[in-house]
Amino acid sequence: MIEAVRRIGDYIQDNKGGGDPLSKIIENPDSNGKYKQVLVVALKEDAGEYSFSHVESQEFKEYTKYLYKGKKGNALDATPTSRITEVKRTFKKFLGWFENYKDYPLSEEEIESVRRMGEAIKADQDKILAELQDKFSSRKAGDSSILTLVFDDGINIKYLGDIPLFRNVLLNKGCKAFSNKYGVESIGQDKVCSVCGDVKEQVYSFAVPWTFHNYDKPGNIAGGFNVAESWKNTPICFECATRLETGKIYIEDKLNFNFVYGFRYLLIPKLALGGDIKDILTILGAKDRKEHQKLDQEAKRRLLADEGDILDIVAKQSDFVSTSLLFYEVDNSQYKILLLVEGILPSRLSRLFSVKNTVDKRFKPYYDIALSEPQREKNPLVFNFGVVRRFFPSEKEKGDFAAKSKSKISDKMFMEVVNKIFVGNSIDYQLLIGFITERIRDAFDKNASTNISTIYGFLLLHYLNELGILKNITPVVDEMNKPNEGNFSMGHLEGLSLEQKTMSFFESNKAFFGSDAKKAAFLEGILTQKLLNIQFIDKKATPFRDKLHGLRMNETLIKRLLPEIQNKLEEYKKNYYRDLEEVITRYFILSGVNWIESNDDLSFYFVLGMNSYKLFEDAGEENSIEGMA
């Protein structure tokens, strides 16, 4: 990844930044396009003495002249140029920069000049502040402002970028940022740079972009548990450090995309040796990607449920380029790295899209039958990573399900599943079914509909199985666990007998119905929902739900429920389902005793049956109300 970032930095610097090392450090204070006003405090100089001249409002111009390098919070910026939050507070930071002149690596003569500048500003601070507030209040609505220092000799105005003193301060602070952290300096002398491979006079410790570890943790340090020796981990020279910083800034600005539920990711392309990085950056970094993209942009095509999804573009590139995805969230204005997936080839992304389209197509008939029209309109029932996130919620999610599911563990599990999908590693079925069932039970306990979560769960299982990465489905039968090849026929059950419907359904989903116990649980779920529908028609309530133990099913409960359901149907004189009851009984006999399926397994297939009951309705069936599973 470091090599890829460096190569991007090389391209940006060699083609847009020239050879000035400061160009690799300076930031654009108007990077978001809102800072249109520049408030300048002008000083005039006479024989080494400084005095306040005036405050002026200017339009934002070439940003390099302002020498802006921002710091977070109340920390002093690297130079006397700052974004204005509140005028009085920002002016205090501005004045504070000159009060800390002893900390700057300057000559005695330069330090004296900074001291005199500060005295001139402080002598007229009330007047300066009043003029700044007046100019700031007159800015255009919606505009933001920056504050900077200039020097006016009556003929020309010199900005900070024109003054060697301020350029030296910023350059030295750039070196310090790469070599100082936690109050400790870490520099190697006359050592090999790990990026360019050359012996350099100095190499630094803290120039790696987006590190996963903290150097204040002794176990992360190769240099004898000593932070001062941490340069030995990844020694990087100043030239490479600044180019890495340039690449990092470009990636964060141009290749920064939304993921799901508060997470974002950085896309870092890497070309094979000899490839031209310009072409891929032009495509991926374009403000209007539609001119480069020939693919269908409807939401159904996207893996990330995001209009800015870039992966479908990458998937159409050749394997001459690979991609790293760095997933993160922002915590107190700092990047918190969650996952790095390296070396993803376009052919792998193409496979993810292909399987997605296959599974989406298979499931559409199921959606049309199992869900009501309002539900279909509200929920984009196609596979994307939002489907995965539903079962691994963050602590920021509304409701108490996130708290019950231990959100920190849930976040970690979510990123692990994402990683395995991208790289093709196996995902344990039993672990996944536990998270899916937990979500469904939460809805059931709240008397809410379970059908969306149930169908999303079944869709996720199908997607992973089609990718060939779902393992430990019970019972393990190789033939049954092979991905289906387009025979998913849920939408073609109409006109068949009950026996034919069940056989067709189980054949279409044979990877998940490899045991008679699962089939029995599924069919009993259908029968249960039909009873609940009858109760709702007659009583406007569903008291039999209490018999389901919050969908915490097991072999004993499932076998006990069948005669109880039959008795209720006979009591209501509406037992239209004797054929179904006969099939369930047959599977009970075939399944024997001491079922090997987990309780989560049985619970999932039971509720899947509840939410699939419409697939098994007869044309003459008297109960036609939509279920409330």
Look at the helices and sheets and give the structural class.
Answer: alpha+beta
Q: Radius of gyration from the CA trace?
A: 32 Å
* Poorly predicted spans: 287-301, 476-481, 483-489, 622-628
Q: State the total count of DSSP E strands.
A: 15
- Spatial separation of the terminal alpha carbons: 48 Å
Shape: elongated
| Percentage of β-strand residues | 5-15%
Q: Major β-sheet, in short?
A: 5 strands, mixed
Identify the notable features of this structure and list them briefly.
four-stranded antiparallel β-sheet, 629 residues, single chain, alpha+beta, five-stranded mixed β-sheet, 20 helices, disordered C terminus, 15 strands
What does this structure look like?
The protein is an alpha+beta fold and 629 residues long. The protein is 43% helix and 14% strand.
Quick overview of this protein structure:
The chain is α+β, with helices and mostly antiparallel strands and 629 residues long. 43% of the residues lie in helices and 14% in strands.
Helix and strand topology:
Blueprint lengths: L1 H16 L17 E12 L2 E11 L22 E2 L3 H13 L8 H16 L1 H13 L6 E9 L4 E3 L4 H16 E2 L2 E2 L1 E6 L6 E6 L33 H17 L1 E3 L5 E8 L5 H8 L26 H4 L6 E11 L2 E11 L1 H25 L2 H6 L6 H6 L10 H4 L2 H17 L3 E2 H17 L5 H17 L2 E2 L26 H11 L7 H24 L15 H17 L6 H14 L7 H12 L19
Parallel strand pairs: 1-4, 14-15
Antiparallel strand pairs: 1-2, 3-4, 4-5, 6-7, 8-9, 10-11, 11-12, 12-13
Helix pairs in contact: 1-6, 2-3, 9-15, 14-15, 14-20, 15-20, 17-18, 17-19, 17-20
